Amino acid sequence: MTAPTGAGPGRVERYLAQQLEGGPLHFTLIDPDKSPGETAGRIARGAVDLGSHLILLGGSTGISPAVVGVAARAIKASVSVPVVIFPQGADSISPDADAVLFMSLLNSRNLDLVVRAHARAAPLIRSIGLEPIPMGYLVIAPGMRVGEVGQVDAVPRDDPAAATGYALAAQYLGMRFVYLEAGSGAPAPVPIALVRSVGTALSIPLIVGGGIRSAQDARPLLEAGADILVTGTITEEQGLGDAFRGIVEEVGRARGR
Predict the structure, then answer these.
(1) Cα–chain center distance at 49
(2) Residues whose CB is less than 8 angstroms from the CB of residue 100 and which lie 6 or more positions away in sequence, other chains included
(3) 146-166 burial by CB neighbour count: b if 16+ within 10 A, else e?
(4) Closest by Cα among 100, 164, 102 to 138
(5) In b/e form, how buried is each residue of 182-207, taking b as 16+ CB within 10 angstroms?
(6) Are 55 and 44 in contact, with CB atoms under 8 Å apart?
(7) Which of 54, 90, 135, 224 is most exposed, with the fewest beta carbons within 10 Å of its own?
(8) Ramachandran bin of 24, using left for φ above 0, alpha for ψ from -120 to 50, beta for the remaining angles
(9) pLDDT at 88
(10) Whole-model pTM?
């Protein structure tokens, strides 16, 4: 009998577990509204050639399944790494991707974003056979647009204990990843002390994103315990130039190559 979708790690999670055995990873976030179709495919190809390990699709609010689907198909035609949806809601889910981050916005005041939207989306995810990746999503100040839209009580940058409590709660609830998010376009990444506190406490992979613009930003995050770095704004603003290359190279150095 085939295990039901979500019963345990699927193909993408197994890929990530295998890759994480070699050290930290880098994910490239592509917004299919800003980089549609073949443009998304070209960005993904360049990012993977430089060393990125996975492509995330998401970013804007109100992205339609059709837009996500076109971008996902173009990316999958260009690269062999997984394509995973970074959802803005059930309306951004497409069967053309390999998986979806099934993420609870832990510090939202809106229960829809903590669990109710998930209850509405779960039957669709099951019906189209999309792999869900259970994840706790935690917004750290300043939070930027995601903090506003997500109606969050952002974790203060000087409160590692609060972030660690949320992260451990996510792990104990059975989530298999924790994502610390400073917000797209944040003026600085998640503070190093906060990353170190959370990374030391967790026994599941820690993802960090928001405000990472250079190798100098990436290096201390990796040293503090980030298992996966996510960048998106830097690619939108500067393409796959020196800043992007430097970040990916730092991840490569942390992997020992």
Answers:
(1) 19
(2) 84, 85, 87, 93, 125, 130, 131, 132, 133
(3) bbeebebebbebebbebbbbb
(4) 164
(5) bbbbbeebbbeebbbbbbebbebbbb
(6) yes
(7) 90
(8) beta
(9) 83
(10) 0.95
**How would you label 55-87 residue by residue, b for 16+ Cβ within 10 Å and e otherwise?**
bbbbbeeebebebbbbbbbbbbebbebbbbbbb
Q: Which residue in the block uniquely carries the two structure tokens 């995050």?
A: 221
Which structure tokens are listed for 222? 């990796």
Report the range of poorest mean pLDDT among 56-65, 152-161, 209-218: 56-65
**Domains delineated in the chain:** 23-254 (3.20.20.390)
For residue 5, what pLDDT is reported? Answer: 56
Helix 192-201 to helix 160-172 angle (10° resolution) is 30
Residue 23 pLDDT > 60 = yes
Question: In this structure, what token pair is assigned to residue 241?
Answer: 């130039």
Task: Using a pLDDT cut of 70, give the percent of the chain over it.
Answer: 96
**What pLDDT does residue 158 have?**
97
